[in-house]
Amino acid sequence: DIQMTQSPSTLSASVGDRVTITCRASESISSWLAWYQQKPGKAPKLLIYEASSLQSGVPSRFSGSGSGTEFTLTISSLQPDDFATYYCQQYNSYPWTFGQGTKVEIK
Amino acid sequence: QVQLVQSGAEVKKPGASVKVSCKASGYTFTSYYMHWVRQAPGQGLEWMGVIIPSGGSTTYAQKFQGRVTMTRDTSTSTVYMELSSLRSEDTAVYYCTRQTIPTGGLGYWGQGTLVTVSS
Q: What pLDDT score does B66 carry?
């Protein structure tokens, strides 16, 4: 199975901050990576697919980059609605696997 | 619009089985694979497996092999996920979910079904 490792596990930040979350795959997954945002009691929301493509309707302050084994999700200017948990997920091969999550908290 | 509507919450005893349904609408049911993802309380997301609605073939995560069965009914555009030999660690919210496009991420999600396993 491909292991997905996110860092950090928790991130404290303020409104307006630039935030970067990293995701590493245990082997190459090309660009078959997605990022999700999840709030308590809700289903995950797709933000980015194919590593860098912005899902329709998602604000442009979210961006993704990377390929192979190293990926990043960047929020250019953190907004109050962005405090949530973020997950990366590879869909290069079965079984699909998720990172353990990064909780973005208010500083 | 695409909708995935799941069955309601369940409470089961250890050793029992549970069958969760997911009714799809707003698109051609047989055109997109359907995945199941679960989330235990306070934990992360875990992919369980996938079913191809057109032919019914499945791929399961090894962790669930032998305990999970995914099926579909094309006449009602419904997929089912049955998990047997339940244990307390199976207490979780179970989601059906679909990719937005064949090369995209999981952009459509059911509302989730809470399965509680307790004696």
A: 96
Interface test with A, best of B32, B106, B108 (most A CBs within 10 A): B106
B102, pLDDT greater than 90? no
Decide if B103 contacts A46 (C-beta within 8 A).
Answer: no
Chain B residues in contact with A50 by the CB 8 A cut-off are: 103-104
| pLDDT tens-digit map of A10-40 | 999 999 999 999 999 999 999 999 999 999 9
Q: Cα(first)–Cα(last) distance of chain A, in Å?
A: 36
Cα–Cα distance for residue pair B108/A44, rounded to 1 Å: 9
How far from B55 is each of A61, A67, B10, CA to CA, in Å? 40, 33, 29
